[in-house]
Amino acid sequence: MTDTTPALPGWRHVYSGKVRDLYEPDATAAGAALRERHGDVVLVVATDRVSAYDHVLSPGIPGKGVVLTQLSLWWFAQLADLVPNHVVSTDVPEAVAGRAMVCRRLEMYPVECVVRGYLTGSGLVEYRASGQVTGIPLPAGLEDGSRLPEPVFTPATKAVVGEHDENVPFAVVVEQLGEDAATTLRDLTLAVYARAEAVARGRGVILADTKLEFGVDPTTGAVTLGDEVLTPDSSRFWPADAWQPGRAQPSFDKQFVRDWLTSSASGWDRASDTPPPPLPADVVERTRARYLEAYERLTGDALTV
Ligand code: ATP
Ligand code: MG
Question: ipTM score here?
Answer without folding.
Answer: 0.96
